[in-house]
Amino acid sequence: MSHYRMRTLIWIGVLALLMLALGACTAVAPAAQAPATEAPAEEAAAQAPTVALIYGVKGDGFYVTMEAGARAKAEEMGVNFFADGPAQFQATLQVPILDAVIAQQPDAICIAATDRQALIEPMRRAYDAGIHMISVDTFIGDTAGDYTAPDLDWMLSYIGSDNVQGGEIGCSAIIDAMGGSGKFYIQTTQPGVSTVEQRVEGCKNAIAATNGAVELIGMDYNDDNAAKAAEQTAAVLANNPDLGGIFGTNLFSARGAAQAVANAGLTGVVKVANFDAPEDAIVALNDGVVDIVIAQHPYEMGQKCIEYAVAAVNGEMDKIEKRWPTGYTIITRDNVNSEEAQQSIYKSQ
Ligand code: T6T
After folding, report:
1. Domains of the chain with bracketed CATH
2. In a mutational test of the pocket of ligand 1, which residue from 53, 54, 57, 60 has the highest number of ligand atoms less than 8 Å from its CB?
3. 45 pLDDT band (50/70/90 cuts)?
4. Residue minimizing CA distance to atom 1 of ligand 1
5. For residues 217 and 184, is the Cβ–Cβ distance under 8 A?
């Protein structure tokens, strides 16, 4: 073989090897790159904890605000989150929702139980299915929200207001506005709801502290319905022309009571304590129909519940308190325009 042919053959061989190597690269590259860009995101979503919020009733600004707080914290912490609740504040409607959520096997459930007794067994079922259980707003059982009690220690935490204190604050303010004496009436939702029961207890403490100067002439249950609260209050106003003060123990009770007072032309004459802080309560405060608005902190309740759920999933039990009391912002005509008061008004959607 001539030297020239020999060199040509060597070059052909080198070229062939180069092409093989290039071919191999282009064939392998796409397959090797695809999973590197897609898998981590999918894996992260699959590994992220899932937390469900079951609130007390749809369309209630208090729970709308709680859900917003939970959702924002879930996004911040990379948690899969969903929320649901009944169309009315009723255990018979809430239990099937809880059962459907249990079937989806989230890692944790934050729940505002609509009845302190009826929800114990269904919530225990969720716990037995391996789900971390946290009370938000309301508590279950007879231990005033003490989840260190032996038969309730499976509950991770109770996050919510100090409702006895809230009732005392509201009614003391109204008693002062009444000049320390007179007739008093309470509008509330249903028996068996821990929050409003404790607010009534706090209000009765404030009345008892007057040593008989203030007389509680009655209390009605409105089933969490403002129209019913307005009707019942109108009847009480008609039968008691000398009524001095009213305590509405939640958003709907206070809304109905305030409407009845305004409709009867008794604005400023009958003093009203308004538990909860939707936009219309602030309007009623500015109009002189109600005298004090007690804003809870539902946004914080939602946020805290997500934090606790994540801590539980990570086994960081030392980060979880059995009771986390969220505070209040007390709003009167003196501070209604302050930044703190304005920020504590509930969201409506
Ligand atoms: O007052 C809140 C909540 O704390 C209570 O348990 C039920 O009623 C509200 O949601 C207001 O409507």
Report:
1. 48-160+297-326 (3.40.50.2300), 164-295 (3.40.50.2300)
2. 60
3. low
4. 250
5. yes
